[in-house]
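User:
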Amino acid sequence: MTREKSSRLDRPHHQIPENVNLRCDLRPGDIGSVVSLHGVIYSQEYGYDHTFEAYVAAGAAEFAQAFDSHRDRLWIAEAGGQTIGSVAIVRRTASEAQLRWFLVHPNWRGLGLGRILLLQALQFCRECEYKIIFLWTVSNLTIATHLYESAGFKKTEEKASKLWGQTITEERYVLQLEPSGRAL
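Assistant: Predicted structure:
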């Protein structure tokens, strides 16, 4: 018997816990809850200041104002009426999209929610026939980076920046999709 090497995303799917609702119908309050979740979690975990929340808010406002349900999507994971996770796909060109606002609240990590959110986002990109998906992250988000790499994203750029009250290393990752929808 041989064991094939598989990526983390190829392994059997986790089930969404019964008390978690995953949806992608954009509702009033969703943008604010994603901004708030990012502001609070990144402050607590990485010491980012209020300017990070403003950065997320500016991008989220732009997304909401230009939203096209056929080309853009925001997934919200909820539990007990609270947003506990999110991910978005933002159209940049007819063939290129950006993955943004990928986060799971620390109390809900380790249950496969991040993997499920990422898979939903990539499936949507395939359905939209995007050819290139890119994202920006920071070097100290090693668990998220591992998940991106497991999905086939490759680091293409790195730069040091002074942002959000910190000196950080920003990283750009790119995933090229084949016409068949398979990751290269």
